[in-house]
Amino acid sequence: MVVKQKQRGPTWSDVKSKVVNLDHKQLIQIVGDLYRLSKENEEFLNARFGVLDDPLAPFKKSIEESMYPDIYSDKPIQISRAQGAIRRYCKAVGDISGEAELKIFFVECGTRFTVEYGDMDEGFYNALNLMYKEAINKILSLPVEQRDDFRERLEEIMKSSRNIGWGYYDELREDYYEAFPEDE
């Protein structure tokens, strides 16, 4: 019996071995090509190099369009697209406060959508609950003096979800008071 060996595709190591031989001008050209190649690359590089007054703005726009789409344009909710925006920001900048902001914004948009337009499905609420927990973890890793505004927003999300089904409110409430027992 003949065993076929899997052909592996190129890896970053393969590409890196070529990149190290490029000169400065060639590297600038490649970064420029990547910048123009996609909106995601443009957002990533703008955030990485801090060229925008508000580096969160393009990521927030993507999250809002994905989690609170215009219902009259027949655009669907795109949870994975919104999550991708957060991941791209995290890779580009690695700022804990910015990550917390985007994660809370994700949950705010999703909660606002369901409050205004009606009940969603279990997967939708699971994604919101998971992001809420991730936001709490980010906030708790910040210095105490930077937590209050975020904590207030998390509390507002929890309170606004009181009449939402699927156990959404119950889980938010449990997570909130576990993280901030002094508020109970």
Strand and helix map with partners:
Elements: H1 12-19, H2 24-37, H3 39-48, H4 57-67, H5 79-92, H6 96-117, H7 122-140, H8 148-160, H9 168-179
Task: Write structural notes for this entry.
There is one protein chain. The chain has 184 residues and is an all-alpha fold. The chain has one domain (24-183). The chain has helices at residues 12-19, 24-37, 39-48, 57-67, 79-92, 96-117, 122-140, 148-160, 168-179. α2 (24-37) packs across α3 (39-48) and α3 (39-48) packs parallel to α5 (79-92). The chain is globular. The chain starts with 11 loop residues before the first helix and ends in a 5-residue tail after the last helix.
Outline:
With 184 residues, this protein is mainly α. Helix content is 67%, strand content 0%. The N and C termini lie far apart (67 Å).
Shape: globular
Tally of individual domains? 1
* Topology, number of strands: 0
Mean pLDDT: 93
What composes the largest sheet?
none
Poorly predicted parts: none
Order of helices and strands: HHHHHHHHH
Write down the Rg.
20 Å
Q: Helix- and strand-based class?
A: mainly alpha
* Helix content estimate: 55-70%
Distance between the termini: 67 Å
User: Which range does the strand content fall in?
Assistant: under 5%
How many helices?
A: 9
Name a few traits of the molecule:
184 residues, mainly alpha, 9 helices, 67% helix, globular
